[in-house]
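so my prof wants the structure for this chain in the tokens format not the other one, which i didnt know existed until like an hour ago. anyway here's the sequence
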Amino acid sequence: MHPNEARAAKASFLRRLLPGNLPIRYKLLVHFLLITILPCLALGVMTDWVVNRIIDRQMNDNTQQLIAKVNRTLEFYVGNVQNTTYLLSSNPQIRKFLYEDRLDRQARDDALAFMRSFPTLQTEIAGMMVVNSRGDYLSNDMYARSSQDLTLETWYQEGVAGKGIFKMIGHPVGRSVTTHANYKDSEVVSAVRAVVDPETQKVMGVVLIDLKLRVIVETAQDVRLGKTGLLMVMDERGEPIYVPKQLGFQSIPLTWLKGQTSGDFVETVGGRKLQFIFLKSAFTNWSTIGVFSTAEAAPEVRQIRLYVGTFVFIVCLLGITASFALSHSISRPIYRLMAFMHRAESGDLTTRYWGDAMDEIGMLGRSYNSMLSKISDLLQLTEKQERQKREAELRILQAQIKPHFLYNTLDTIHWMARKQGAEDVAEMVEALSKLFRIGLSKGNEFVPLAEEFDHIRSYLQIQKLRYKDKLKYSLDLDPEIAHMPVLKVILQPIVENAIYHGIKERRGPGRVTVKGEKDEDRVRLTVTDDGAGMDREKLERMREMLARRYVQSDSAAAGSGYGLVNVEARMRLTYGEEGCSMTIESEPGIGTTVSLTYAISGEEG
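here's what i got, hopefully its the right format
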């Protein structure tokens, strides 16, 4: 294949692939698929998104509730510790210890017995100690490791800074106080509260209580967050209170909480994408944080997605099947009608659409059958008219043979009359011969204005020989327009009317004047006679006949009107409604003037 042919074939193939050039079957199929599949896919995506949001919200709400429950449990234990500090500071012996320099042995024993009773009732307490402002202390199971002044300890200073407000300070770090049970720093959580003299606002001492971490661990472990979720507890400084080993990390940055008291966020820790849900306790200032993998909700989500996907698949399958069936049912009658039209286009006008459907296609098919019937009738009529036209042309040709023979014979008679000396006979025969020759004009429809004036001159010469001195005439043609074409034999009927209905009807001799001149972009031909003229009624009737281009056979002016109407009709058919005009002016006893004007074409000008 030639490269140009290959490119043309490729371009034609690509044009067929354009949306506007696709067959109607594929257009319908595409539209039906868009109507069915797109909404189903959108519904599936929206359902998946909504379900994910609902599951996430439910998980967050449930986790928040569980965390709140854990916080209330922790607050209960911490609240017991706070109450214990109040009970200790209100004991008379302990108050005496805080306010006086020394206690006697009995008062000291009573104070220690009171303090040792608490761990029995509150097993979550690992130890307690009361330190006065002088550095002396009382304790049930705690003691100082060295002789260092306990008022210099960090925990003591934090208690003093609280000015009587209870405070959890987290795991003890680097303090010189321990217990006989030898709890590790990571196994206890400390709480302090300063004892302030209500009158002087002077700090009399600090109460230190260690809470067993086991209580917090048991509380946090009893709560299950989904399948793999765990709880961790962190103090207000971001230090861990309790972090399960299963998490694989010891702490998280405090900035992740963004200073909020509750919320959730997702972070990647150790290559795992984890979701954190937290709630801060206003009492302990601890933040309890639920930690679980973002993939934990995947099984439920996958199950829901499976259901939604199955539903969407079934609906799409049904939609595709229905789309194919519907597009086929709509396009099949169209293709059938198109096949009939192709057969008609190839020339078979006998084919007919068959079908009794009452829809638009059926109506179109019946209209198509009616159209073919009318086309067949028109073709038969056209064939008949063509046959008649050929017969008319043949008759015209036969009719033309006679005038040729006639003016040839007249030409012979003309020379024989001259030879015999009959000049008047020769002159008339010559004029009549010229009249026939110019009238035929070799079959041409247009002749130059000069020939048309020669034709009128011959006609007037014949009439002059007939009417003698009663008829006078003059011809005036502007040489500038003598070469311009004009419809042949348009002046002769007008001149004939002027003689027979003007000059002939008057007394005495009369004159016929024929004039041709240029009027801007038009040619004006004027025939004027000084004959009998017409009264107003007859003139209006004549103008009406010209306007309607029709002459009644019983009209008094039928003889004169027919020739003018015929000339006017020929002019309008040739030059158009706007390209020509005919006017008649007449007065009784003065004469009649008939004017013809027609436009000069560009080539003529």
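also thought this was worth mentioning. The first strand starts at residue 125 and ends at 132.
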